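Technical annex B. To support the medicinal chemistry partners, we prepared a structural model of the target in complex with pyridoxal-5'-phosphate, based solely on the information shown next.
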Amino acid sequence: MKLSQRITHLTEGGSDGWDVFYRARRMIDEGHAVTELTIGEHDIRTDASILEAMDLSARQGHTGYAMMPGTDLLRDTVAARLQTRTGVPTTRNNVLITPGGQSALFAAHVAVCDPGDVGLFIDPYYATYPGTIRGAGATARPIQTSADDAFQPRAQRIDAAADGAVSLLINTPNNPTGVVYSRTTLEGVAQVCQACDLWLISDEVYDTQVWDGTHISPRTLPGMTERTLIVGSMSKSHAMTGSRCGWVVGPEEVIAHLINLATHTTYGVPGFIQDAASFALNAGNLLEEEIAAPFRRRRALAMEVLSTQNTVGLVPAQGAMYLMLDIRATGLDGEGFANALLDTHSIAAMPGESFGTAARGHIRVAMTIDDDRFAAALTTICTYAAVLADRRAAE
Ligand SMILES: Cc1ncc(COP(=O)(O)O)c(C=O)c1O
């Protein structure tokens, strides 16, 4: 039987640099001790207070169908949070609650892309981006960034790729690079979106994980509120990856259509999950800071380890739970280095090539294991890279 092109062409097939990830998985399944630096998920679980709120809500009966756009309470809470943090007037009518940020990314693209349109995204990119754009029926077109420019997207390149495009997807703080986009970058992005009449889909799921600089939401920039769709999530800010709770924030008209989409796709998010999310968001900044603290600490540890050597370069580690390490001095690409690292030292890191072509010659390290093992693994990576670089110099 024939299947739709949309589903069979969702991903482009091939390993895309994920071989090392699956190899590490197999090694772990076979009982090998592997230091896992590939996973973008906290090494703590959802806070007990949030689970208690979830439990209470479920026991009070919030286990039936929930309201399609999200509960009034959670929509109001998300709106108030955004308004407080950005100054942009926001009400519940600007908010759709979704089953996680991934679902919000998909909904946002469905809202603005028609079949045949082009959806732009920035390379390096979070793994699901091209498939999400294709899933919405559009053609996914990457915009290159450069390691030497700290992977900041430049307006000129976006402008040059904008033919036929209706949307641009950006992500700050960024997965996989750990870079936070500067005001200058975002002003350039805003300018090109207005000049080329693009929707801006702004993935801000790491907005509570900023170690250096400030997170600026592009929705706050002049002329951008009406053309920006923000994607947010409880996954990273509150260690609630498994709860599947996120949102799209945007103009009322778009949200009204997206409520209709939710009615015909997800049929909403469980009420007890939404109540737990409302509780968590109203618990204040302290809880968010506590959840982000291990990454802040490990990022500082990494700066210490990396400062003692000069083989491995660090892309400015300003936010999110990842470090992007430049291993070009070894003469290997990211895939070659990551495979060799796994074989020789049983350390699993993601090759830069898993995230497109711009991060070739890099590896992404997730800061998601305990401090001591994390620092030890980084030291090993640096020592090993130095050995390879020396060997290369001697050839
Ligand atoms: C950049 C980025 N956006 C979106 C997501 C999706 O998050 P979730 O669907 O868990 O909210 C992730 C998850 O790792 C991510 O890294």
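Notes passed to the chemistry partners:
The pocket of pyridoxal-5'-phosphate is lined by residues 40, 100-102, 126, 171, 175, 203, 205, 233, 235, 241, 246 (CB under 6 Å).
The first strand starts at residue 35 and ends at 36.
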